[in-house]
Design a protein that fits this description.
single chain; mainly alpha; two-stranded antiparallel ribbon
């Protein structure tokens, strides 16, 4: 067969190939559109099996677009443009009321619009953020300060009662199980998860704590804390104690794995932890310093891990979940010492001689 005959056959196939490619692309597009439309329908129609409640605050000046964005941020809707379209089609986009609402994550778009058209019993709220490594006493002080500025009736007496309340968390110890010498507020140390929250100003002190403890529960479940603690042959509470020390020794998450390694290596050979952060827990805050004084290191308390072996009796702060996870899963190393330099760098050492050299080099 001549070259011309071959070229002729190839030319005949080209349109068929092009048609095939077009058909394949159209089929793929149709499938994609079908999946998106199916997801849209499911989200718009809602799901009665999803019952988790989410609080949303609509404030003066919030447009329908902003309201849709808030709903999306909280995981209540997935298609904000469709929500906006429905509001406009029903001529209610300028009739949505300000206030604090509770929505179920399974609510349909129509149910959400119906709720937003009716002004709720408005409950003013305030947003408060808590730093990682804050202690229970710091958190209470922040509540009292912000509450006083915003007209809440929160009181120290109310928080003292809330410290003794029962909460939905199996790891919180009973007050009567804490050793003598442990302050009562230490019972909730580690369980008031450091995060940013919106609190109703008419909430009780117990409700404030309960919201933070619920967040701890969610983080513990999300990161499989119980399973990881068990795999490390630790209890969840032991992991929380060690994690809190790791948190206070360095606020840098990248340091957590090796700091955990140092403490785990020491625990393995029954060596004292020698953590200034733990010792500081029982020292008045205005007398604390990164490196404790000779007198402080020689004052015996249940948290003086220079004088006592093992872990202190409770966490020493409310740490982020990563610190607790790294307590269970340290990086493997031969380090037994570390220091923090004035510019925030953590230096590790394998031997006491190396540690002394680091101290002389970086801290003197």
């Amino acid at each position: 067969m001549g070259r011309r005959g071959k070229q002729s056959k190839v030319k005949k196939w080209i349109p068929l190939i092009i048609i095939g490619v077009i058909v394949a692309l159209l089929a793929a597009a149709a499938i994609t559109v079908g999946v998106v439309y199916s997801n849209l329908q499911k989200d718009v129609n809602g799901d009665d099996s999803l019952t988790d409640l989410i609080t949303i605050e609509i404030v003066s000046g919030d447009s329908t677009k902003r309201i849709a964005a808030k709903l999306e941020e909280k995981g209540i809707i997935d298609f904000p443009f469709w929500f906006i379209l429905m509001a406009r089609q029903q001529s209610v986009d300028n009739k949505l009321q300000i206030g604090t609402y509770e929505f179920s994550v399974g609510d349909s778009y129509q149910e959400i619009l119906n709720i937003l058209k009716k002004a709720p019993n408005y409950r003013p709220s305030v947003r408060i953020g808590f730093a990682e490594g804050a202690e229970v006493t710091d958190i209470i002080e922040k509540f009292l300060e912000v509450g006083a500025e915003n007209g809440a009736k929160w009181s120290q007496a109310g928080f003292n009662e809330a410290l003794q309340a029962d909460y939905n968390c199996p790891y919180i110890p009973d007050l009567d199980t804490l050793p003598r010498g442990v302050p009562s507020y230490a019972r909730l140390e580690g369980f008031l998860y450091p995060d940013t929250y919106d609190f109703f100003l008419d909430s009780t002190e117990e409700e404030l704590f309960a919201k933070m403890i619920d967040q701890f529960n969610k983080k513990a479940e999300e990161f499989a804390l119980a399973e990881k603690a068990q795999a490390a042959d630790m209890t969840v509470y032991e992991a929380m104690i060690l994690g809190s020390i790791i948190q206070r020794e360095s606020g840098n998450v990248s340091d957590f794995p090796l700091i955990s390694s140092v403490f785990n290596n020491r625990l393995e050979i029954d060596m004292k932890l020698q953590s200034d952060a733990a010792v500081n827990y029982m020292i008045p805050k205005n007398e604390r310093r990164p490196g404790c004084t000779y007198e402080q290191l020689n004052t015996d308390t249940l948290y003086n891990v220079y004088m006592r072996k093992g872990l202190p009796p409770t966490p020493i702060c409310c740490s982020r979940i990563e610190a607790v996870i790294y307590a269970c899963q340290p990086e493997e190393s031969d380090y037994f010492y570390f220091i923090g330099t004035p510019d925030g760098v953590t230096i590790f050492a394998k031997t006491y001689q190396e540690h002394l050299a680091n101290v002389n080099k970086y801290l003197k």
